[in-house]
Write a structure and sequence with these properties.
Mth169, Chain: A; elongated; 34% helix; ATP-binding; three-stranded antiparallel sheet
């Protein structure tokens, strides 16, 4: 069984209002020194078969068609 992680993040040029709201709140909670925050999504997939390049390719196709919006988001696929 292959365990694969797909991390999805907004592209750097896309405004992230949720990340900005978190960054503004951190000093109020006593957390100083955080320059910026970007909010994202993480998916863990269990795929049949070994954790080989074919499994990663399958996970990339899943990410591109369902988990991420490639117009505004980047994604990274890796073995867990």
């Amino acid at each position: 069984m292959a365990r694969v992680v797909v991390d999805v993040m907004l592209k750097p040029e896309i405004l992230d209002p949720q990340g900005q709201a978190i960054a503004r709140k951190l000093p109020q909670l006593g957390y100083e020194g955080v320059a910026s925050v970007r909010q994202g999504k993480r998916f863990e997939l269990e795929l049949d078969g070994p954790a080989d390049e074919a499994a990663l390719d399958r996970a990339r196709k899943i990410a591109e068609t369902l988990l991420a919006n490639p117009v505004i988001e980047n994604y990274e696929v890796r073995v867990l």
